[in-house]
Amino acid sequence: MSASRVTLPALFAGLGTLAAGVAALAVARPGSIAVEPVAAIPHATPQEFPTVSYDGTFTFVRVRFNAGRRSFGGFGRARNPGWAHDYPYADENFIKILDEVTLLGPNTEGTNVIDAGDPELHSYPIAYVSEPGGWAPTQAELDNIAAYLGKGGFLILDDFRSNREWANVEAIFNVVLPGHSFRILELEEPIFNSFFQIETLDLPPPTFPQYRPIFLGLHEDNDPEGRLMVIANFNNDIGDYWEYSDMGYYPIDLSNEAYKFGVNYVIYAMNR
Question: What is the Cα–Cα distance from 68 to 78, expressed in whole angstroms?
Answer without folding.
Answer: 20
